[in-house]
Description:
Layout: H1 6-9, H2 12-22, E1 28-29, H3 30-37, H4 41-53, E2 57-59, E3 72-75, H5 77-80, H6 87-102, H7 104-123, H8 131-144, E4 149-154, E5 157-162, H9 168-173, H10 178-189, E6 193-197, E7 206-210
Antiparallel strand pairs: 1-3, 2-3, 4-5, 5-7, 6-7
Helix pairs in contact: 6-7, 7-10
Amino acid sequence: MKPASALSQLGPTQQRVLRRLLLAPQGATVETLCAAIGISHNAVRQHLTALIAAGYVERGTALPSGGRPQARYVLQAAGRELFPRNYGLVATSVLEHLYAASGKSAVQALLATIGRELGTAAAERIANSDDDETARALADQLDALGYEALAVRRDGETQVEAYNCVFHALAKAHPDVCRFDLAFMEAATGRPVQHLECLVRGGHACRFRLGRKHEP
């Protein structure tokens, strides 16, 4: 079963601290966070210490207050990335307009090109030494794109399963959008990829088998 997101693994109070900092681009003081969340100064400081150690928050420049400067705390890029973004809805709308304006073949070509370009960039992060390691590294790269992917043992080999098709709504009407997935994986691994099972066609996941590495 897929592990929960990093944000949901944090305690509810730490999530509230992060959300308050998300709403304060210039940062927030301990006093501000205490008032917003309704907990003590010591509790806020303990949570901030943990979030700083995790790399989600940093201590920013102190704010002048007419007396002793007040330290402010700022959300780092890693903390901002914890919050989900609904890219899928935007991407689906864009592709629907492209289908209407340019036609099926043009969209297929575009998806394959984008998949190859992103896959080529991902190839630098895939060691490609053996089948199992390559499958695990590929699953990690797909997971980073939002596919909720894992490397699994099936039929005596390591395959890749994705449980969240990023084009799921669009793929119901235009199954050819899977060209992006295949182009990405083949460029990332240098291997042919076979699509064995599909969420859109009633499968429990999108499942892929990696072939042998292409010879130079």
